[in-house]
């Protein structure tokens, strides 16, 4: 189907390289401006305040096993795109991709009979990815992988069916070298601080080991209580029990439950956390009265709370999380509007986060009102809101972030952290919220190797947008450079301040 | 009101011509890239898989009657724009446009007293269009008409009140020549295959005549059952009766109704159809149980199904259509979110499709879930979704098409098939879905003469977008050219494969 | 936090100036085209048909008091942005901004204990604004203030903490001069006509004084009845009483209420009004029967109408307003989708319009249907719709305005009247509605001094968009110039025609 591809110049005869002006505007004058701005941010340290790298990776610092385990199997962007081509004529189907299992994703425990066993040959998995390289044209995966393969791993040729084995050997060779172990890459990427995501009942032992190794300020936990505040989940009760064990507090009562959450938040603060993180399908922050909340908690523990009641309790608990943030200073991150496990059958076969998470409409103006009315001007409160529904940018999020001192607008997230989408984000939000009501880029990734590629792309997008403002005489160059430094470095630091200083001595000592 | 217009250079003194670089980016370097890409697609055959040309036009191959009947009266884009200016001071009102009747649109049977009789003088209708030429500035109608008038009909001057009669004579002269008969234009446009839209009870006799003339593979039907699966329509029962007659199957029972639909789908397959087409105001694909469906059908036949029940039955039938597609291989096209006949009084006066169809919000993530969970990985199933609600591009449609192998994202449609809107489509969808999860351009037109103009404009828009990717070093030129050929030619062919091969011999023989 | 800012060139060592090509495209060829177009519109008179300047300002023509009272305290764009930075480290917090009170906004009557007293030192308020100058980067406030300060007030340096006092003295000096009194600026700005916004019970005495001074055609009222048709408001009854007094008609009955509204509309017509203006959180125009409406009115007067009933009555009254517009020829402006006083506590402390107004989703297709079906083709009816929800542009508003002769699409409004947003407006609406179904720019401002800056920026945005059409060979230059003149001058005049001529002698004489 793609005769030209096989004959493509870059595949075969030229050296594969990263263009220094990639993702900058093509017009020469605009490009020169963008480069001038980018020169001031390209080498700034990375402040990565929202992500999903496993802290144990850095605590253990063991080498990455193989190219498939590093690049393909855990990256849902990659896996989704390849599976999306699995019934169409073309190289992906020809390479044998029928389901996520062919890319090494293992069936979940209890998967039904007939669920395909996961491919275990990393070379075969890698080959399938290479065969499907053309499917990623125009996507950020393409940009990130190109950056990582060329810049970090010095890969000599564009992935393709033909180059797959040679590339595999090249990468496997690199992974065996000490410079490619996690901490070495961390240093090489210039990461100043990296936030992980952790459950309230987690022991944070990897973070403790990191602290013992002097890395405590560099890798910090984030408090993510979703499963602990959603009684509609079947395993909510188990989570509440585990919370009690972790906190050493009886969580069979509503009061104990709140105390245990408060205690675990302080344990996270003590371990260096700067923020909490909240992702729910629907957003609502309406509080219940203490009596209503207690009654709902008791019903939920007894298994007799209906769906509407469970949703109201989750909304109430989001309000409580905001109240606790105003107390303990943890920044409250919120990102609603994702329908998890859209493909139920696949989720049951292969486990959660495989059944495709798909955005839905999100509403912020009414949903955040209770929290913003209560804490939006509180000097110790900060809410950072993310969306995958672009329609809220100019309509709701920029007006809110441009008004309430306690709110900032998070960076373009998930499906929106690519070149064109990042441009749309700035164009839709800056005119109402400015730059300083946004919180800087977050990579939100579990793909450790892509962190520097993602921050690089974001800095290029911001430099391009700022170059446009300068080129259109809407901003002077010195201001654009200052704003670029804000976006790349100062704002992520300032948006996620260390909460310790804001605690009273009594609280800090708890 | 528009003194400059009368004095405009192009009207009077210069030759009217099509610029070879129209709709390409103005920057010289970007334009050169776009031209290089466009050069590889401009002369590829047209694969027009979704449209509304009447098959009889090509079966009969009779000459087009006159310029008004060809260009004005049947083109609702044109008619709407002219009517929209009918109460404003200016050339349209001055030219005597008061309602659609002044543009030749006839009152419907049973139109109320006082409904204005349709203008019958084609020269007067054409004059009204020419007088209103400036109203189309910036619209795709302007681009298409310019292309058709200059490229196809060699019109020498820009339309205006002054040039109207000369242009009319010029066009009428051309229409009398054999090179301007439908089949000659079909060849000249380089159309490889053209899909029409047909009701399940249609005899497909025009297609049979085309097949007899050796044109069976070039003009193919599409199965459009909307009126047959919406019990809220007053004429639903009549349609179900007609379906029974066409299929030779008793449709007074739910089982017979399903069998008749299945049989007519196979008749369409035998006549060369590749797809079905479904347009409903609301999108829902939730199936009922067989018992519920049977009960709903019986109530609907008895006239006792309420609106909610009728909607649920339509949703169920969309699920059935998907199930039948997985069986017989017809691609399922779906395009919800249009409120038909918005202006009820005008619809009653002048007939359906006159009262203005206006978009409403459309939801896809939840609405398509039942069908995608059931058939989204089926090797014989393909769903192509269209929208006139751009907000669903990055939020819902690209994430869905970028995940499920059984789904592709249809081209920008209806109000969105213009230069800027087509750019927004690629910018909003490519980063998540790539190119190969889209299905290529569809012209969706009943204006036969505009088909080549529409595909030309779409190829220019895609070349411009791809040139941007190359100019920003996000894609290599060889890949961009390959992607352009995908979009212009390979993807529409591949997205609508012939279903015959997928049928079992037994089914194919039915 | 911002070391580079202090060292910025423009702050200290260079002259502050307005670039003649500001807000035009950076590409030299495109910029030349945009300039050619802008040259034809830049000096056209300003027709400002929708705004909130107080007519007394021009009737009294007293000098503006001081820079803070002129530029900061009454401008909610400015106040919001500064307050949004009040808990973040940086110059705004350092300058002492804690709440709106620190910017001179006074607590409302009956504000709770502890509400901070308003700052009364204009120099201190001005200093806070200057200290926060960098917060406005990329916003229209930045563009407007730059224009006003440099072009109108000849300010020599960029605002900053350091330059604050010198700038204050410079501005105060200018404000004492006769050339800076309101009428002198009105002439200098080239304003041909300026519409104010007025309540139905207003005496219009400032307009009468203007008329007596020969300014009656230059400053005209607009009829804004929101508070008089929303029974959900606590003060609705008081407004209905005041309406009765103003009209000299008993408004205790529904019939009298309608008659009084009709009479006041005619009084506005007599005073030169061209339009009504309607802003409601939700949009609905469904009429009630006369009996239902009468019953709802009586219940509302008795205080026994529930929320649903009150909303239905408001919808009914919007339909009545449309019916009256078809009678008396006042253009009906509508702009739904704003949740007023989002921050209830701040609204209670500091008064309405301080508690932040935040957009919500707006629906037009169904909501406007009753009015458009009834009056959309009426030769004497015009509806102009505005939105702060961009999603409605291509989906609902352009299709409606591109079909109904009685509807036009209003200019990008409020949060959307900035460079990038105005470009998005044209790109999203022109391809469906063209130019002549839009109504031209409205500044919608109470900041008198910014009027010329806002129209200037809008003309630059339109010139840039039109230059793109010319550069892409989608429009000829003569047409682009003609369209630019339409947008800048002809369309606002034509969209808001004087209704007097359309009244029958009997009506006009009432």
Summarize the entry for a quick read.
Three copies of one chain form a homotrimer. Chain A is mainly alpha-helical and 510 residues long.
Determine the N-to-C terminus distance of chain A: 66 Å
Can you give the mean pLDDT of chain A?
Answer: 94
Q: pLDDT below 50 for ≥5 consecutive residues: which ranges of chain A? A: 1-13, 504-510
- Strand arrangement, major sheet of chain A: 4-5-8-9
Major sheet attributes of chain A: 4 strands, parallel
Catalytic activity (chains A, B, C): D-glucuronate = D-fructuronate
GO molecular function, one term (chains A, B, C): glucuronate isomerase activity
Protein name (chains A, B, C): Uronate isomerase
Pathway (chains A, B, C): Carbohydrate metabolism; pentose and glucuronate interconversion
């Amino acid at each position: 189907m793609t005769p030209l591809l096989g004959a493509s110049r870059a595949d075969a005869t030229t050296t594969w390289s990263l263009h220094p002006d990639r993702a900058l505007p093509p017009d020469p004058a605009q490009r020169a401006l963008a480069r001038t701005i980018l020169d001031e941010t390209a080498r700034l340290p990375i402040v990565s305040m929202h992500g999903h790298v496993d802290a144990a990776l850095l605590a253990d610092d063991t080498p990455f096993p193989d190219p498939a385990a590093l690049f393909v199997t855990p990256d849902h962007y990659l896996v989704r795109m390849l599976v999306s081509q699995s019934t169409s004529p073309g190289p992906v189907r020809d390479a044998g991709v029928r389901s996520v299992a062919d890319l090494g994703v293992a069936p979940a425990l209890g998967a039904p009979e007939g669920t395909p066993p996961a491919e275990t040959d990393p070379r075969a998995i890698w080959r399938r990815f290479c065969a499907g390289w053309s499917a990623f044209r125009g996507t950020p995966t393409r940009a990130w992988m190109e950056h990582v393969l060329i810049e970090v791993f010095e890969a000599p040729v564009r992935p393709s069916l033909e180059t797959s084995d040679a590339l595999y050997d090249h990468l496997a060779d690199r992974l065996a070298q000490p410079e490619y172990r996690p901490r070495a890459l961390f240093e090489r990427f210039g990461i100043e601080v990296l936030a992980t995501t952790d459950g309230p009942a987690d022991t944070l032992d990897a973070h403790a080991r990191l602290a013992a190794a002097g890395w405590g300020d560099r890798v910090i936990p984030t408090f993510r209580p979703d499963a602990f505040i959603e009684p509609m989940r079947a395993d909510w009760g188990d989570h509440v029990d585990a919370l009690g064990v972790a906190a050493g507090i009886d969580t069979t009562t509503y009061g104990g439950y709140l105390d245990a959450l408060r205690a675990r938040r302080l344990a996270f603060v003590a371990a260096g956390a700067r923020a909490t993180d909240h992702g729910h399908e629907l957003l609502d922050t309406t509080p219940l009265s203490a009596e209503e909340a207690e009654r709902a908690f008791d019903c939920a523990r007894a298994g007799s709370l209906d769906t509407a009641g469970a949703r109201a309790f989750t909304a109430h608990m989001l309000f409580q999380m905001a109240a606790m943030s105003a107390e303990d200073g943890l920044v409250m991150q919120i990102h609603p509007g994702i329908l998890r496990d859209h493909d139920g059958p696949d989720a049951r076969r292969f486990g959660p986060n495989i059944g495709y998470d798909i955005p839905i409409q999100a509403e912020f103006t009414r949903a955040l009102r209770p929290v913003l009315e209560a804490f939006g001007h509180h000097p110790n409160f900060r809410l950072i809101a993310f969306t995958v529904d672009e329609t809220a940018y100019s309509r709701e999020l920029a007006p809110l972030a441009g008004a309430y001192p306690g709110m900032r607008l998070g960076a373009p997230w998930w499906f929106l952290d690519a070149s064109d989408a990042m441009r749309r984000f700035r164009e839709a939000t800056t005119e109402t919220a400015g730059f300083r009501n946004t919180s800087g880029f977050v990579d939100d990734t579990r793909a450790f190797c892509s962190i520097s590629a993602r921050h690089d792309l974001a800095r290029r997008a911001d430099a391009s947008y700022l170059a446009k403002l300068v080129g259109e005489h809407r901003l002077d160059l010195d201001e654009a450079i200052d704003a670029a430094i804000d976006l790349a470095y100062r704002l992520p630091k300032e948006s996620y301040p260390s909460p310790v200083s804001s605690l009273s001595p009594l609280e800090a000592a708890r």
